[in-house]
Each structure stands twice: as C-alpha cells, then as structure tokens.
Amino acid sequence: MLLILPPILKRPTIASLIGIFRSFNSWSLAIRNASSPHKALHLYSQMQRQSTRFDSFSILFTLKSCTHLLSLPIICHLHAHILKLGFNYHVYVATSLLHSYVVISFDDACYLFDEMPERNTVTWNTMITGYSRSGDVEKAWKVFGEMPARDLASWSAMIAVYVNNGCWGKGLTLFQKMMLNEKLKPDQVTLGSVLAGCGQMGSIGLLLGKSIHGFATKNEWELNVELGTILVDMYAKCGFLKNACKVFDVMQEKNVMSWTALICGSSQHGYGEEALSVFEKMIEMGVKPTELTFTGVLNACAQTGLVEEGRRFFKMIEEYGLRPRIQHYGCMVELFGKAGQLGEAYEVINTMPLEPNVVIWGSFLSSCKVHKQFELAERVINRVLAVVRPENNGGVYSLICDLYVLCDKWDEAEKMRKLMIKQNVMKARGSSFIRSGTA
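Above: the chain sequence. Below: its structure as tokens.
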C-alpha cells in the first residue's frame, strides 16, 4: 500500500526552500527599511495575520524600531509574542528585548536578565549601560565583576558609567588598568568616554587628554567629526582654548556640536566676545543652533555684560523653533543681575513659564547683595527657602544670612543661623584638581 504524505511532511525541495528564504528575507528587509516605527509594527502585524513564519531577523528589526516609540505596552506585547514563538531562548533576540526594556522600563529589564537562560557579552554590557542610565554605579560595577568574559565594549561601558556619574578619577583609573592588564587597544568609543572625564578634571585631565590626542595622531586615526568634537570639548573645558581652536580649525567636517563645544568652552572661561564671534560664524555657515548652543551664547553675554545682545539672542531661540529652557532664563537673570538691572531680572523670574530653581534664586540674591538691593532680596527670601535643600544648598542659606546682616536685621540673621543648625545645613567644601608643587 502506497502511503501518501501530506504536503507539510513531504521532503522540501530546493525551490521550496529558496521560496521560504526569500519570504523571510523580504519581510525582514521591509521591516528594517520601514519609514517609521509604526510602519515597522504594521508590517510585523501583517506577518502575524497572514500566518507568515517569523525569523529572528524580523523580530530583531521590529524590536529595534519599536524601542523608539518608548511604549511599554508595545514592548510587552512583542515580549509575549516572542515567548509564544519560542524565541526567548534565542540569545540575540532576548538581548535585543533586554535593550528595549533598559530604555523603557529598567525594573522589567532586571527581571528579564535574571530569567535569561543564556547570556552573551552584549547581554552583560547592556545591563551595565542600564545601571549607568539609572545612576547605580555600584550595581554596574557588580555586573562588570560577574562577567565571565569581557571585551573592549565591556570596559568602555564601565568607564562610561564612572564618567557619566561624576566618578571621573575611577573612570580614568579603570582605563589605565585596561591598557596595562588587558592589553586591549582602545577605540573611539572608549577614548570618547575617557576624554569626557578628562574635561572635568582640570590640569590632571588635560595631561591625559593630550596623551590620548597623541595616541590618536600616532595611530593615524582620522580626525572625523566625532573625535574632533570630543577633543575640542575636552580642551575647551580644561581652559586650553588655543588647542581647542587648532583642532577645530583642522577638522574637515563640523556639526552643530562641534561649534557648540567651542562656544560653551569659550564662554565658560571668560572669552565671551570670542564665543559670540564663533556663534556669528556658525550662523553664517548655515548651521542651525541647538538649545545648548544658546545656553553658551547667553552665558557669554552674561560674562561680558552685553545686555542688548543677550535680549536679541534670547528672542532668537524661538525664531529657530526652539523653546527657552530654564537654563536660558537663568542666564537672563544673571545677565540683568550683573548689569545692576535687578528689576528686569525680577521680571524674568515672575514671568517665566517654569518654576525658578535654586540656581536662579542664588544668582538673583547674589546680584542683590552686590548692588545692595536688600529690599528686593527680602521680597523673595520666603520663596527661596521653599525650594532650597539643607543637604545641597548650604551656600544659599549663608547668602540669605549675609543679606540680613548687611541690612542690619540681626534678629533675622540669628534666626537663619539657628535654622541652619537645626536643619544641619552644611556648606560644600571647595576642591581642586590643580597639582601642588610638592607632589
């Protein structure tokens, strides 16, 4: 008796295998090249409705695209479908899903990581990045220490954790350990994180930054826009503006961040007019400024006392389709305050659509102290006390106390001192990275 197999159990032919492969490839390619995350999700849904077999690439491309929507329900829906299809055991799919949760819901990412049956180096690196985003340096270091194997990306991720969370010294120490013990050759990602830390460490950071610049030159690395911008930013933040300008001038390609790094660095170190000159050249070149660019420009105006220019540049923010942020209002308060126009500064505070923070209030009170506008300062002290925090803003408490003393209100000054003792207000100690001659 001849047994006739149903079509699904017949041995596949070469032609049928090619057809299946082309089907997989065409759907995956369509999702990968989708014009928007919504379009990618629509194509994925079509595959499901048409009972088309899913492959790992179609799922990977869908996850990558839909992560940009920052929608937890969508990622949870895709997660459920991945479990149904059995792709949760596919390490690349699971790691891509982990990345989506790291971006959208880190608590869920931690649960998924604990349940993953298989992990690769990228999986571990993703969790290190997740802890960096959440500011948990200790847990990031714990994950780094538990890794069965580390690659260059692992070291780069951990260095970035330290640098991004203000632990610059630890980041640079880890970089040195990587170079000495692991014999790994750093790439631009690694050096980018290290250079970002150098920019925060004054003269010590400058020495290491110069060394890294020399390393890049010796190895004939192309001075592309990414590396060039990082070097400009590092030199500018360290106050080495001559080198920042030299790097900037030899860059073949510049983007808005390159221009912004030079503008902010110049204004930060008191070269306000030079910063504004760079900004004018940037506008002439047709480069559209960002919110950060305008922060540097307005700070330059405040440093040099250019009130009218500051007004003009502040209006330009909306002309470029941007919305003024709290740092822009803070720059205007500082600009008017330094120029002695305390009424204008007070008007900015009262009319700004955002709640003034402690930085703005501190700037305003400092200007009141300098220009002896004690009555205006008294008018806002209660509002200031509502936003200051004893553990962080000891300097503002001291400033209020000084203002009471200067206007001979000794009883109020004594009350403020008692309040500072009661709330255990502490002024932050000053610190410096300047080397001593005995070192």
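Residues 1-10, 14-24, 431-439 have pLDDT under 50 and may be disordered.
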